[in-house]
Specification:
244 residues; mainly alpha; 10 helices; 77% helix; globular
Length: 244
Amino acid sequence: MEVNILFLAVLFVVAIMYASVGHGGASGYLALMALFGVSTMYMRSSALLLNLFVSAVSFYAFYRAGYFRIRILIPFILGSIPMAFLGARIVIDPNLFKSILGIFLVIAVARMVYVPNKDKKEIIPFSIVIAFFIGMVLGFFSGLIGIGGGIILSPVLLLLGWTNVKETAAISAIFIFLNSVSGIIGLISVGVTFSPDVLIWAVIAIAGGLLGAYGGSFKLSILRLRYLLAFVLFLASIKLIFLT
């Protein structure tokens, strides 16, 4: 029971952190599952389901605030949705799954500690072709390991200078939501298994997502929470890459 309470408490914090920057949190949920020894047969499906709820809440908040730019989103989605479906249909060896996930968690750590320059100007013209190709790559790995792809999409958007921080959050949130839907459909098509505890996980994740997207009471400690989460992700990546 103590382990379950700790798991739920960290899950709540993860959802808050990710929703506050327009993410669904799948990389965090997967890291948490890895640290607590959740079976790999449950990890992809459960993480994608939690992603659905949290990214939806996050997107709604940023959309209402007027930060959504559909013109930027469309080519990414056209490339990613079919590839997320295909990636989810691939039955991957558990050890290979853990290694790939570990690498993506290292990327997630870099994303958590990366602080973009809010005053950065657009330096690269928006390219539909480049966006479509990036969407394809992110979509495939989204389905393959059970993430939404936003943890990589957001720094790409910022580095290319195509969106500002809050526009990036809005686009990443809906990108994650749609990829998660496609990934779950792909998993269902080959037979999906969710954790028996996924419903209570979903309730906790939604509560955290609401606080992350709308609440202001956590803003003063958001930097400390970000680095704490990055540390948890780093520990999980080490476990997945070197201890499997």
